[in-house]
Specification:
The structure is a single chain. The protein is α/β, with parallel strands linked by helices. Helix content is about 40%, strand content about 20%. Strands 1-2-4-3-5-13-6 form a 7-stranded mixed β-sheet, with helices on both faces. It has a 4-stranded antiparallel β-sheet with strand order 9-10-8-11. Strands 7-12 form a two-stranded parallel ribbon. A hairpin with an 8-residue loop joins strand 1 and strand 2. Helix 6 packs across helix 7. It is globular and about 85 Å long. The chain starts with a helix and ends in an 11-residue tail after the last helix.
Length: about 475
């Protein structure tokens, strides 16, 4: 009975904030600011938190768009992680079911971070209010984390000590399902390699020139051969950022290539990267050029916390899946026409890979559906999802758990214009509010139930013992 009263109180708090949260998320969607440029988005969230009585610390870890908002007093200290960066080239008119950029080549929220940060903020505000109303001690923090998309914002914040005294961190991610992210994630390392050669006329002075573009091509060939000599979890991908010009009769004096490595652990990405540097040096020797490189970003693997995940799952079951209506279904039916062929089969294939035999229970409940209307059963999954996030790096400092809610039509491709298009729909807003409720209830459980927090902390300390954190970024 007491648990039900608590849940109803939290839900009523969130519902009272509904219009404000929707307005904030839609405004951040409009801003669509790229990594480390989220000045308006960060200001909007921090101003809203200050209005709710949070003390704001800006320029955290030297990042101009990072901030921490804190309220309350004493232990425990519970953190909520928020993001608000957009993605390049995903500008798209809201509510359209065909490709219609707002700005050609512009940015767009194709990963839902406009609602990610807003829901986490809403949860932090509600937990603060609950503790104040019931005169319960505890400190609530909202972490404004920039540059999740390729900028390693949380890695930089963690290295600066931002998460050292937090007893648990809570976050979420918009997706097309209702779930607890109980799987691991691939570690990453992103670096750029620059080659410097000598320009010359390619026909009459070829013997004098040294081609930086040839160095890039030689490096890429070597990297492609490296694929056969790394463990199966390693992914090697590259993109030529600067080919040195468009004139074929000029030997290119400058060229740059970017590499993204993924593996099950950060230690493995570091080992592969050392071999990649050797290949780059070899390419420079063969082409007579000079090579330099810079590690731009990186993320680690997750230290999962099953105790915290189970608490979050129980709260999700209490709240229930994202509610859907006929308008949601009608829109989903139209936008699904733009999805890649066999999108549903791809979803099911990934489910079977991650969930094993439990997928036999899930698949019949979702096959043929336009929107995911069920909560997946909780299953601790040891293998990595085909994706990466700097939330994993926070898990090396404190226990972390992530909930996902159905904010998009089922099988919506990630990092797509289709996600941007759905960013202001009623379904997306309802998914945001559902996530806020689940996160708030999880946070309150950790504050009011010392046994729950102890189980979470005990598991974290046991798993962290004897494991060194390999920071993906150089000092």
């Amino acid at each position: 009975m007491q648990e039900m009263m608590k849940m109803n109180e939290i839900i009523s708090y969130i519902e009272a904030k509904k219009d404000e949260l929707i307005k904030i998320s839609d405004q951040i969607w409009d801003y669509a600011e790229l990594k480390n440029q989220e000045f308006k988005s960060a200001a909007l969230l921090s101003t809203a938190l200050a209005h709710e009585g949070f003390a704001i610390s800006e320029n955290v870890a030297g990042l101009k768009t990072a901030f921490v908002a804190e309220a309350g007093k004493g232990s425990p200290i519970i953190g909520f992680l928020g993001e608000y960066d957009a993605l390049p080239d995903l500008s798209q008119e809201a509510g359209e079911t065909t490709r219609k950029p707002v700005i050609q080549g512009g940015a767009g929220h194709g990963c839902g971070h406009h609602i990610l940060g807003t829901a986490a903020m809403g949860a932090a505000v509600v937990v603060k209010k609950y503790l104040e109303d019931h005169k319960i001690p505890g400190t609530i923090r909202f972490y404004g984390c920039p540059a999740e998309e390729g900028g390693s914002g949380k890695v930089i914040m963690g290295r600066a000590g931002s998460f050292d005294d937090v007893e648990a961190a809570i976050t979420w991610h918009p997706t097309d399902d209702n779930n607890i992210w109980s799987m691991n994630f691939l570690a990453t390392l992103f670096a750029t390699f620059h080659f410097e050669g000598i320009a010359a006329h390619s026909a009459s002075q070829g013997h004098l020139g040294r081609s930086a573009l040839e160095a890039v091509e030689l490096m890429n060939v070597g990297a492609n051969y490296l694929r056969a000599h790394v463990t199966r979890d390693v992914c090697i991908n590259y993109a030529v950022l600067d080919a040195g010009g468009i004139a074929p009769n000029t030997i290119q004096a400058e060229a740059t290539v970017a590499y993204l490595l993924r593996a099950n652990t950060q230690a493995e990405t570091q080992r592969v990267f050392e071999r990649l540097v050797d290949i780059a040096q070899g390419a420079a020797l063969m082409s007579g050029t000079k090579m330099s490189y810079h590690i731009d970003s990186g993320t680690s693997e997750l230290i999962p916390n099953r105790a915290l995940e189970r608490i979050m799952y129980d709260k999700f079951v209490q709240v229930g899946p994202v509610p859907i209506d006929e308008d949601d279904i009608a829109f989903a039916k139209e936008i699904r026409k733009s999805f890649p062929k066999n999108a549903e089969e791809s979803t099911i294939s990934i489910l079977k890979m991650l969930y094993g035999s439990v997928a036999d229970e899930i698949v019949p409940r979702i096959r043929g559906k336009l929107i995911n209307d069920c909560i997946y059963p909780y299953v601790p999954i040891e293998m990595a999802k085909y994706g990466s996030t700097d939330v994993c790096d926070v898990s090396w400092y404190t226990p972390v758990a992530q909930v996902t809610t159905a904010c998009y039509a089922k099988d919506t491709p990630g990092h797509s214009w289709q996600e941007t298009a759905q960013g202001k729909t009623n379904l997306c807003h309802k998914g945001m509010l559902t996530a806020a409720k689940v996160m708030a209830l999880t946070g309150i459980e950790l504050v009011v139930n010392p046994a729950s927090l102890k189980a979470v902390r005990d598991e974290y300390c046991q798993k962290r013992q004897g494991r060194d954190y390999v920071c993906p970024l150089p000092e």
